[in-house]
C-alpha cells in the first residue's frame, strides 16, 4: 500500500513539474542549460569562434540519455545535433561580420522539450577591402564595359555600389560576395571608377571602405553633326526659312540611330542621317534650333540661334472714355505701336474689329465708334500685313449702371440725445458710389463705397425731434454729370426718453374709505409706447405692469382696506430703457361714515346712560338728606328685651359726638368723625353733585349681660345688630357683627 502511494505521488509530481521526467523506474531533471561564445562575444574579423551548449541533467540511475541540441541565430535554425554528451561545440570558424547576431541553444531529452538557454549576442567587427576589376581600360563612345566588384572572404547578404568620380551611378543587391555591372560612357573623357559594398545584418548594416580606383579612357566616335539655316542673319518676320540637319562619318553600327530637328519643345522633323524643313519666320517662335543625333546611349547635338525681326507689333485695343455708362457712345481704337519701316509702310497695315456684328462706324484707320452700349461686351482687333495677322488682347467693356435715387433711413432707433446712425443706400448702381449727407442742404460728410459688402453709415447727433427731417443724402458714381440724384428728406420717429413720472391717487389720499375703488394714475412724458409699473413700498415686485400708447395709465385697486395702507410709487420707461420714478404717494384708508356714526351713537348712548345714572344718584341722595336717618339696635340675646332707637338728624346733639352713655346702662359708641383725608375726598366728590353734606353712619352697640359661666374671659364678648340707612336711595340693611371675625378690634371699650 505504501509503495502504491509513493508511485502515485511520484507520477503526480512529474506531471506538474515538466522538468522532471519519470520513465518506468528512471527519473531525470534538467538543472541548467547554458550557451557560451568562445573566445568572446566581441571579436574581430578572422577570429576562430565556437558556440558551446552545455546541459546539466540530474537522474535517478546511471543510463545514457538521448539529447538533441539545436542552435538558433536570430530565431533561425543554424545547427542541430543528437548526442549523449552533456555538451556540444559548434565552430563558426573564422568569424565574419555576417556571423554577428543573437544566438540561443535548445535541448530535447528523450524527445521531451526542455527550457532554452539564455540568448547571447555575438559582435564581429571589420570588413575586407573591396576589389574592382574592368574588362577594358579604353573604350569608344557608347561602348559597353563590364565592372566586377568583389568582397574577398565575406559572406551574407550584400549591396554593391559603383561610383564614377565620387558619384554613385549604379547599385545591386546579391547574396554572393561579388557583383557585375555593365557600363557605357557617352562623352569623351577620362573616368575614375571605384566600388563599395554593405553587409546586411538585421536590423542594421555595415559598410565597407572604398575599393581601388580604376581609370577608363573614352575615345570620341568619328561622327559630326551639321545644322544649316538659310537665311541666318537679318531675318524678318514672314521670311521663308530653309533648315538642313545631317550626320557625317557614320559607320555601320548595331546600335539604333535617330536624327531629330527640334525648335524649342517642338520636334519639327526626324530621320536617320539627313533631315530638312521649311517654315515662315515668326517673331513669337523660339529662336533656337537643335539637330540631335542618338546612337545607343551616344548623343551628339548641334544648335543655332537666329534673331527674327518683328514686322509689326501686336495691336493694342483701347476704349474711350475710360468710364462708360449704359447707353453711352464709345470709341474703340486698334493700333500697332511699332513696325519695321524698312520692310513695311503704315498704310499696308489694316485693322478689323471683332465681333464684326457690333454696330460700328470706322471714322479713320483703326478707330471704331460703337453706339449705345447696354451690356458687357468683349472686343478684340486684328492687325494684318504681308499675310501676317496679329490679334490684340481681349478688351472687356463693362458699361456702368447709373446710380439710382438713394434711400435714406435710420439704422436702429433714433434716440434724442444719443448718436443716430443714418444709412444712405441706392438699389442699383455700379461701384464705386459716393454718398454725401446734407443737413438743411449743408454738406455734412461723404463716404465712398468700393465693395458691395460696404454700406454708407453716417453718425449724427439729434438735439430735437424736428432735426431728423433736415437730413437728405446724395448718391454719385458719374463724374461727368453734375446733377446727381437726391433722396427725400429723412422721415423717422425720434424717440424721446421720459424725463419724469408722476403718480396721482383717485380719489385723493384724503378721501379714501374702506370699500372704495382706488385708482393710481401714473403720468410720464417721452415717446410712446411707454411701459408703466406700479410698486408698493416694501415689495420689490411690481403690482402691475402696462404698456400704453398714451402718456398715462392707471392701476385699479378694488375695495380697498386697511391692508392697502402705505406708500406707492410708479416707474415709466420706453424703448430707450431709461427708467424714471415718481414721488411716493401715501395712501391711508379711512373708516366709512356709517361705522363712525355707529361708534358715535354708542358713545352718546353710553354718555346718556351715565348722565341719567348720575342724576338719579343725585336726586336720591338729596331726598334722603331731607328725611331723618333712623337706626334700630336690638340685643342679640333673646333674654334682653330692651330696644334702643336713635334718630339722627342734622339737629341731633350726638351727630358729632364721640361717645354717648345711655341711662339704661348700655354703652353706645357712635363714630361720626372721619379722617381729614377722607373728608377732603368726600367733599370733592360731593361738591361735583351737590353742595349739601353727606350723611354719616352711626353705630350703636348694646351690651349683652355677662354670662357667669363664660367667666371673665368673655367680658368683651358682645354681639349686636346695627341698623343703618344711607342717603343714596338704598334700603336699610341689618348687619350681624361676628366677633370671631373682627375680634372686636373696632368696638369701643365697655363702660362699667
Automatic annotation (TrEMBL):
Q: Report keywords, A-Z.
A: Disulfide bond, Glycoprotein, Membrane, Signal, Transmembrane, Transmembrane helix
Task: Extract one GO BP annotation from the record.
Answer: immune response
InterPro entries noted in UniProt: Ig-like_dom, Ig-like_dom_sf, Ig-like_fold, Ig_Fc_receptor, Ig_sub, Ig_sub2, IL-40-like_Ig
Q: Which residues cross the membrane?
A: 597-618
The record's annotation in PROSITE patterns points to: IG_LIKE (PS50835)
Q: Which Pfam families match?
A: Ig_2, Ig_3, Ig_C17orf99
Do you know which PANTHER family this protein is assigned to?
IG-LIKE DOMAIN-CONTAINING PROTEIN, IMMUNOGLOBULIN FC RECEPTOR
* Name assigned to this protein: Platelet endothelial cell adhesion molecule-like
Query: Which Gene Ontology molecular-function terms are recorded?
Result: transmembrane signaling receptor activity
Q: Using the record, list the residue span of the signal peptide; answer none if the entry has no such feature.
A: 1-24
Q: Which domain of life is it from?
A: Eukaryota
Q: Name one GO cellular component term.
A: external side of plasma membrane
Ig-like domain residues are 315-396, 406-491, 498-586
To which species is this protein native?
Sparus aurata
